[in-house]
Amino acid sequence: MDDKKLLNLSAVATSRLIRKGDIRVRDVLDHYLRQYQTYEKSINAFIDFQPERYLTAADVLQKRITLNEPLGVLAGIPVALKDNICTKDVRTTCGSKMLKDFIPPYSAHVVELLGKSGVLITGKCNMDEFAMGNTSETSAFGPIKNPWNLAYTPGGSSGGSAAAVAAGIIPLSLGSDTGGSVRQPAACCGISGLKPTYGTVSRYGLVAYASSLDQIGPMAVYIEDIAALFDTIKIHDRRDSTQINGLKADHLTHLEEFMHQKSEMSLPLKNKKIAVLKDSDNRAVQEEVRLAIHSLIDQLTKMGAYCEIVNNPTSEYAVPAYYIIACAEASSNLARYDGIKYTQRSAQAKDLAEIYFKTRTEYFGTEVIRRILLGSFVLSSGYFDAYYRTALKVRTLIQDDFNRIFTQYDAIISPVSLSTAPALGESLQDPLAMYLNDQFTVSANLTGMPALTFPCGFDRKGLPIGAQLLGKPFDEDFLIVIAALFQQRTGFHKKEPFQQNYRRDLDETI
Amino acid sequence: VIDEKMLRYIAELAKIEIDEENNESLADELERIVEYMGILKNIDLEGVCEMSHPFPEKQLLREDVCLPTMTPEALLSNAPEQMDGYYIVPKTLE
Known about the structure:
The structure holds 2 protein chains of 2 kinds.
Chain A: H1 3-7, H2 11-20, H3 25-43, E1 46-49, H4 51-66, E2 78-82, H5 109-117, E3 120-125, H6 159-166, E4 172-177, H7 183-189, E5 192-195, E6 215-220, H8 223-233, H9 251-262, E7 273-277, H10 287-302, E8 306-310, H11 315-333, H12 352-363, H13 366-378, H14 384-408, E9 411-415, H15 431-436, H16 442-447, E10 451-458, E11 464-471, H17 476-489
Parallel strand pairs in A: 2-3, 2-4, 7-8, 7-9
Antiparallel strand pairs in A: 1-3, 4-6, 5-6, 5-10, 9-11, 10-11
Helix pairs in contact in A: 3-4, 6-7, 8-9, 8-17, 9-17, 11-13, 11-14
Chain B: H1 4-14, H2 23-37, H3 72-76, E1 82-83, E2 86-87
Antiparallel strand pairs in B: 1-2
Helix pairs in contact in B: 1-2
């Protein structure tokens, strides 16, 4: 099978061919290895990429296939992980100098699940330091470039996971999403990304940033791959007490049945009501992004959905509430990096206090220090009630606001961010402006609801535009169906950066 | 709210050394962010409950069974200094 054909197949379809014996695991990996050799140098998406390790794993897997062992729907497919997901005996850095030599003695639950189902982990992706940032420029391993235009960032913080998929180096990846860190880079790179409902994926082995907001999520070009990877990683884990037991992992089956029964119907979304957040049309949103969202609404209307603009009165409170809570939790979670337990200790330190102060100051980057300081402030005596406790109450109001919308609507649409990918070097000078760009994404983390982003257009500079669907808690199925119907009728996800034209020859009309 | 004195105080809490030269600009930058966060103080929150977790939590109890855990050696393997199953730190008592 040639490279062109492989890029035009979803990972689910490729794995089916592998399991049937029509193609060999090695051939698939060789293809992606060639992509890596061609494109990685220009985008810096990986912190570790170890072909030897996974070629051996591929041969072991090929034997398992020959022996007809039970394997998952993504068996034989390579996947890359954001480098804050622990991999036993393989360095896990969180994009930080603090963990540059950290070798976890255990693997995250999701890593164990991928291994069992025959998915091959091929590398660890570059990211904003400790997942703090939305441009992937705060990494201690250098900034990541956007494959669509190397002068632009890929968004963040899961920028490497997004850029690697967009560049065709890997068909699937996992990121983590605390305030938009799966969805915003997916949007900036023209791929899809899911922030699952809080509590559906085990956080065991995900290096903690803000524990009440963090969730691991799949990233891919094709929506069916998002469904399949989500199914693979959501199996219950006794080691995360916030993970909800008894959830079904049959999103791919649900999607396939829906598409089989209804996708050819003229009105597959008949009787469905979709709310459009009023702020989507705000002037602060880049004009081309607004127009792309309008086209998406037209498309959904043509499919029978009833779309209507709704006001959410708490929208302006989401970003301040989010940053208070996220920084508070981060300052607590990152207290563990004390120069004693995790690999780095300042050589200048003479006593115990200096070990704490000098190690943390030397090995944390600017944005991490900024958030730790903000978190320490909102939790400090005298300000705890005014900031932290207030933010927790506002979090309730925001959840009430969305619950109200969901009593009348089946899903909600908005852009992912105010604009397409920012240029390199543009955002870090003004942290407040950078935080404000998270306006559309943070609510899903504060409330726990699922959110799916997928490409819905391109701006004048040729940079991808992403749409976001928000759903009722645990109703990822409906979001996946809407996005799949959109992908079936449009070709935005099939466009490729680097002018390879592999996926480009397909229908692009809307 | 955040002046240089406050910045020194929270840095002490966070165990971070602050570069005296950049003290003022860092305080200004944090002050701008905190001022923006202050818009929450104008909301009427009478009777609103605090939410620390997205969904109502139940205390989950696992079955009381013995399972293998990681060895002390594995857990200590990333320590910058360790010996005989202990972390090594400078003398803390005179």
